Amino acid sequence: MKEILLVAQIVVAGFLVILILLQQRGSSLGSAFGGTGEFYAVRRGMEQKIFWATVIFGIVFVILALFNLVI
Asked: Which residues of the chain have pLDDT under 50?
């Protein structure tokens, strides 16, 4: 059981790192692909999904870490 939790936590951590790196602070996702990024835009579409996926994966990571401590 402990090995399964450890592997799950490593996988979630990998996805969390990828999601964090995909986010652009203060600019839209288009600036990562050659946009100017001179203005701040509201998160819409894919940016909002990446943001919420990051939040969910962060919560899952913390829960897995707590389970690893208890078990």
From this structure: none
